[in-house]
Write a structure and sequence with these properties.
- It comes from Comamonas antarctica.
- This is LysR family transcriptional regulator.
- Keywords: DNA-binding, Plasmid, Transcription, Transcription regulation.
- By secondary structure, the chain is of the alpha/beta class.
- It has three domains: 79 residues, Arc Repressor Mutant, subunit A (Orthogonal Bundle); 103 residues, D-Maltodextrin-Binding Protein, domain 2; 103 residues, D-Maltodextrin-Binding Protein, domain 2 (3-Layer(aba) Sandwich).
- It is built from ten helices and 14 strands.
- α1 packs across α4 and α5 packs across α10.
- The longest helix is centred in the first third of the chain and has 23 residues.
- It is elongated, with a radius of gyration of 23 Å.
- The relative contact order is 0.15.
Length: 301
């Protein structure tokens, strides 16, 4: 059975679209459609139900998909067993990373990983918005923050210490808060995946409890660069990972406030779709990224 055709089928099934699968695989839509049709003829059954609006797996297609994914993972492991060690791994990797971590930590160290595995092709998406690894075709994603209930496999890496920040100009204009009650006279820049005020407030730990003090919010952003820029511009207080703000604190461009009322450390984890066998190239990438990030993280809370 043609492994390339199986990979095409799996991508179409995951995306529910021949067009999107073709775009991700770098193929024409007609070639993708023909590969799936050949599989169906070979198997003697319809795998996908096609309509003008969507593509769905048939019951046979659902059974075939599960076996197909396991077969592809086994085939990749089998191939890797007999490749000369000097050649490293081969194949394509698609990874989604938070923008700041990609820029500051992962990409600067990427040459060493590619030097060890020169036959790999890596695609990196940098976004502060959460993606669906299965739907969007990623081998793994790096997540910062509390994980929602998911069928993905999570590999916890540690946590990032948090801090509260303001610009000197903002503090000169509005005063420095000394207690939670003082926050009633201040403004918060809110970070949210969607541009709404849901969840806005000053987060802090009270013993083992996480609490939120309501605050006035005049600006909502959905990206880490915009969040930091808003604070530097004096638009309000923010709560952010200390690692990403330390250079600004050292330069005096930002000031830490209310250190006794900081949020709980933010967990960091690698996530990947459930597989019976993890492809060697994915396992190698996960291990490498974990090693790169470990010195930058605290133990999980």
């Amino acid at each position: 059975m043609d492994l390339h055709a199986l990979r095409i089928f799996c991508r179409v099934a995951a995306l529910g679209s021949f067009t999107q699968a073709a775009q991700q695989l770098g193929l024409t839509k007609s070639r993708v459609s023909a590969a799936v049709q050949r599989l169906e003829v070979q198997l003697g059954t319809r795998l996908l139900q096609r309509t003008t609006r969507q593509v769905r797996l048939t019951s046979d297609g659902q059974q075939f998909l599960a076996r197909c994914e396991a077969l592809l993972a086994d085939a990749e492991q089998l191939q890797a067993m007999f490749q000369p060690a000097a050649n490293g791994l081969r194949g394509r990797l698609r990874i989604d990373l938070p923008h700041a971590l990609a820029r500051d930590l992962i990409i600067p160290r990427l040459p060493e990983f590619l030097a060890a595995h020169p036959l790999l092709q890596i695609g990196i998406s940098t976004s502060d918005q959460r993606v669906d690894p299965v739907q969007d075709g990623f081998d793994c994603v790096l997540r910062i923050g509390t994980l929602a209930s998911t069928e993905l496999i999570a590999r916890p890496l540690g946590a990032m210490a948090m801090c509260n920040l303001a610009s000197p100009a903002y503090l000169a204009a509005h005063g420095t808060p000394r207690c939670l009650a003082d926050l009633d006279r201040h403004s918060l820049v809110h970070y949210a995946g969607t541009l709404g005020l849901q969840g806005a407030g000053w987060e802090y730990r009270d013993g083992a409890q996480n609490r939120v003090h309501p605050m006035r919010c005049s600006l909502v952003v959905n990206g880490t660069d915009a969040y930091q820029a808003a604070c530097l511009a004096g638009l309000g207080l923010i709560q952010a990972p200390l690692r990403g703000a330390q250079h600004l604190l050292d330069q005096g461009r930002l000031v830490a406030v209310l250190p006794e009322f900081t949020p709980a450390p933010m967990p960091v984890a690698l996530l990947y779709p459930h597989r019976r066998q993890l492809a060697p190239r994915v396992a190698a990438c996960l291990n490498w990224m974990a090693g790169v990030l470990a010195p930058q993280l605290d133990a999980s809370p």
